[in-house]
């Protein structure tokens, strides 16, 4: 049974995940017929501003032939007055069959999916999950290494507030990638440790031993919230820069979910480094999203 | 008017009695306890195969009146109380307006009398508007009927205010009740901080948020020599602090809720607010410590923190939905479920004798001459269906669960107000 929704990466079983990524690669190598989702009404419902993800989804939807509707309600217009259930019922009644949703509250996609009879794709809910970002990261890793099991990946920075990190942890664990989380305790509580997930506080000790390093964005509001002292202090320990690039293996790759803050979590040297895969990531994003739309609406072609 | 509770097993912690006895109530007071009392025209409550106990008192409920009557009224809340086996409840002051003036308290008392079901004991605010700044008029509130003082969910952040409140009210017998949560440590939390909140991307409140306020308030109690009651303890460390305080001679009592004794912080995977409550449901080691503290006597009282809300309010997003849920009608079964091996006399003491003593209210025993408030309950497994609640608040994490114990009949001042599954307002009651 293919999943009805993609709320987080683990809505797909590991074989389904691999099949979706295979499909994404096939779409990249040869454009699919434009009628995969011909006439299927897809609503992009972005309560939270997004440039890259919204654009990527829209392009993906157009390439599979969906009827695309995009709507960016004010962040708070839902939740006051109309209930989630009423909204879901209304949208289904209008004829929407797929909702791609982004919302500032963790769990919003799940709450919407529980009330909506069609398909829901989570394009980011609060600090909880961002599964298509994790899928495009996994696609990029697979393209690089040809395998998942046994890889060791470091995720560095503000894990606590990162839906990208959480979805990657879920996906990487399912695919038996060894995960090393790196950051200060205020942004990376010990509660994140678990089977297949190790916590380190010293980036320099980790860098020589990983196949990939994913640098998360650091937001200045963490300083005002009393979670970071100064950017300088963070940079001294966790910034990926020219010096630290030397510690990274030649065959390792650097990932970043974007948008990056230059001279905070990384420097221009990183973006110019041949090991950086940022462009490949965003490029893969469109094909992953096409594959997800196809998988949810038409089923996942898992080899028996 | 005479009422005879007949054929039951009478357990009275004060009398040290556990035997089959009939209890005769006349004009609101217990007049006779005997092995075989003839009805002689009395209204008879059949207590065969059931336990007869002094009336249960829930010292922590929210009746929402005045100001939030879409959630609950004094009439619906006291109907829920008697259906759950409670003859009396103490209602918290977080109404709108708050219970911070004598006239508002008098109004609550009048409405409770008009409802004619359970006794209602108002808990007055510690600060005006529960805002944490100016002291409430304790002597006037006490004269109007307040049995305790509390700012409920909004404990004063300013320790100086709380200390002065306790010093000013030192000559009153009314206990101070603390809902212990540090607002800064708690932040915007919707659940307990731990592996589950980390995984779900939800803000969690650390146990520390409770522990630091418990410690602060115990030290203020010691400093002011005011007797103090810690509401709904939820962490193991809070219990250790309370044990330490008692060993030092500090006059402190505490309570535990059904939900903290039964549930853990693993109930948020669907991002629904059904289990959202303050303090939050905690980790297994905390729940186990609570159960142990019931057994070893550290915890004095079972109290529900009955906090009814409208279904549409609880259906909102987790961040917007209000905290708490109804508890009165599941309480007896839930306590029994949580601590199955608790001797019945202790169970009754925690629901009757101890809260009566802490609040200084009638009841807690059925000794001849005592008030005629009786709870009859039985080991009778039943399945919770929140749709059938008398409370207007129909959400509870216990919905659908099978509980081992329930109330059979509730008698207040000799009047049978609950029997055979029906709430029976007293003669002359308006509601």
What do you see in this structure?
The complex is a heterodimer of chains A (304) and B (431). Chain A has 304 residues and is α/β, with parallel strands linked by helices. Chain A folds into two domains: 9-130 and 282-298, Rossmann fold; 131-278, Rossmann fold (3-Layer(aba) Sandwich). Chain A is built from twelve helices and nine strands. In chain A, strands 7-6-5-8-9 form a five-stranded parallel beta sheet. Chain A has a four-stranded parallel beta sheet with strand order 2-1-3-4, sandwiched between helices. In chain A, helix 6 links the parallel strand 5 and strand 6. The model of chain A has no long low-confidence stretch (mean pLDDT 94). Chain B is of the alpha/beta class. Chain B folds into two domains: 2-51 and 371-384 and 402-423, Urease, subunit C, domain 1; 56-359, Metal-dependent hydrolases (TIM Barrel, Alpha-Beta Barrel), CATH 3.20.20. Helix content of chain B is 29%, strand content 22%. In chain B, strands 1, 2, 3, 4, 5, 16, 19, 20 and 21 form a nine-stranded mixed beta sheet that branches. The longest helix of chain B has 18 residues, at 207-224. The mean pLDDT of chain B is 97. Chain A binds chain B through residues 79, 83-85, 105-108, 110-111, 114, 125-129, 160, 163, 166, 189, 191-192, 194, and chain B through 193-195, 197-202, 270-272, 312, 315-320.
